[in-house]
Amino acid sequence: MTFHADLTHFGWIGVQLFFVLSGFLITGILWKEKFKPEPLSHKFKKFWFRRSLRIFPLYIVYLLVLGVVYFITHAPQNFEVHFPYLFTYTFNFTRSLPGWQGDPAYTHLWSLSIEEQFYLVFPLILFFCPPRFIKYFMVTMVLLTPVTRLLLGNYYTSKGLDASVVADSIYWNTLSHLDAFFMGGLIPVLALDKKIRKPARILAGSFVLVFVAGLLNYLNSSSGAFYFNDLGYNHGLNNYEHVWHYTCLNIFFASLLLTLVSVHSQQILKGLRRFLEHQWMVRIGRVSYGMYVYHWGVLAYFYNKIFNAEALWMKVVLFIPYVILVYIISELSFRFFESRFIKLKDQLFSDKPKKEPTRAIIEQTLISNKTI
Questions:
Q1: Which of 67, 119, 123, 201 is the most exposed place for a label (fewest CB within 10 A)?
Q2: Cα separation of 216 and 210, whole Å?
Q3: pLDDT tens for residues 207-233?
Q4: pLDDT of residue 356
Q5: Among 3, 10, 47, residue whose Cα is nearest residue 28
Q6: In this structure, what DSSP letter does residue 337 have?
């Protein structure tokens, strides 16, 4: 939100945290399911139906609303061209199309396309393959993904695309983020939260890596941007940024996550833990999906049109009420719409054990059996 509100340029790295965290959570869920004595069909159905009921309703209704608005006003621009890609979660592959133009109402949804593609394919690998293969596969993908980004950069450049288009096309490609998903996913798969006894050392080392790499990149860049605007991570092609800077950020976020969940570091980052566990942070986390979907459209089509702030200090002043507005919209969306499907998800595929029969039912059963 700070990135789209033009307060920080480095705000885009939040997407990297999003992918690492998603890899940790989803892989952890699938890894536990893999060893349950249930039919494979049930495991697939449970995972895909639960994910669908959480993500599809808001996403599909949001697109349908945009479609109605476009039919009436012809805004947002190019929506009729991009709607098939948005609806099929393939919008992230459109960035290199000739004459591409996005819109704040839906451009940010490219990351949700990557998420859905991950949800669709990875369970097939994890459920069908033996555990040993999965571990080697994930580690191999972590190592090969930077090479993949290098090859993607060469490919898009060979098509004669502008440097900014090449950078975005790499960034929007699903294969560019396998290391993010799997760095997070290796924590539960390899039980790193139990095996690594001093994760804080890894976190400190990853912080040094991110800081030094960003600083060196900034010093060797001719962009002229202020250092604290992007911290040396300006999302481009200079100094092969597209190859290494995602890796550095992913390592840092995975290390931070490992330190937070490790059984050996409960006394470390206590302040951050308390902050993340605060009831308001939990409430924001509950509706964060809606905040992500709504935030840029609210900013571009409503908030900026009313206030039209150009000075940085004015943008800073207006940012907090803007966040509150997006939160309120998302809270209402969650409470009166999304929660209905979440309840359905829990009713159909609950992981909670079924309640044991009451004493009266047990006694009646014993009596009946004795009578028979």
A1: 201
A2: 10
A3: 999 999 999 999 988 766 778 888 899
A4: 46
A5: 47
A6: I
Q: Which residues of the chain have pLDDT under 50?
A: 354-359, 361-363, 365-372
Contact 193, 263 (CB under 8 A): yes
b/e string for 139-177 if b means 16 or more Cβ within 10 A?
A: eebbeebbebbeebbeebbeeebeeebbbbbbbbbbbbb
The pLDDT, as a whole number, for residue 198 is: 93
Q: How is the chain split into domains, by residue range?
A: 10-371
Listed in sequence order, the residues at least 6 apart from 75 whose beta carbon sits closer than 8 Å to its beta carbon are 69, 103, 105, 301
Judge whether 214 and 233 are in contact, CB under 8 Å.
Answer: yes
Q: What's residue 353's pLDDT?
A: 52
User: ∠ CA 39-40-45 to the nearest 5 degrees?
Assistant: 105
Query: What percent of the chain shows pLDDT beyond 90?
Result: 77
For residue 51, give the H/E element and its range: helix 40-73
Alpha-carbon distance 56 to 361, whole Å? Answer: 41
How far apart are alpha carbons 352 and 322 in whole angstroms? 38
Q: How far apart, in whole angstroms, are the C-alpha atoms of residue 268 and residue 190?
A: 22
Structure tokens at 75: 């805004």
Residue recorded with tokens 């690594």: 196
Nearest by Cα to 12 from 155, 168, 159: 168
Dihedral through CA 241, CA 145, CA 296, CA 284, nearest 10? -120
Identity of the amino acid at 102: G
